[in-house]
Amino acid sequence: MKNTTDNVKKVPRFGILDFVIILLVIIAVLGVFFRTNIINMINNTKDLQKYTVSYTIENVRYTTPNFISVEDKVYFASNGEQFGTIINASENMSALDTTLPSENFTTATGEIVEVFYPNNETRVKAMGRLECDGRYSSDGSFLVNGKEHIAMGQYIDVKTEYVTVTIRIDEITVVNA
After folding, report:
1. Who's near 105: CB < 8 A, 6+ residues apart?
2. What angle do CA 90, 134, 74 make, to 5 degrees?
């Protein structure tokens, strides 16, 4: 009888060289992923500073300011990203300063007259400030957290834990350290 080991096929073995080649391919794929994603994240968040954003909420119910407090987190309503944190509106330590809402009209003589809404128990105009991290981009626009563009005069829908309102950006100033 002949030896049967000659008829048996040799099974390829997984060697150390195969392991090294597979490891190098995985490292190359991870390198490409990290280069595109991590570099973008670092570029977006580098050079961030603290800024104060002053805003106005126009013509809201007189009860709305009761639901906005100092230290409340503010988020963009469109994507849920954090915008900033409510800080004192002025020396009175409240989150918002409120006044009666008004509109300017021009009389027949050309004089501009400010007309207030009749009842201070229904609608108010509220002014406040929030602190956020951001930076100015190379084209001069302001980026909240290095991502969201905002500009003075822009209307933005924002939300807190209790309310969603539209604010008008009035001023963006750097916080002095």
Report:
1. 112, 113, 115
2. 55
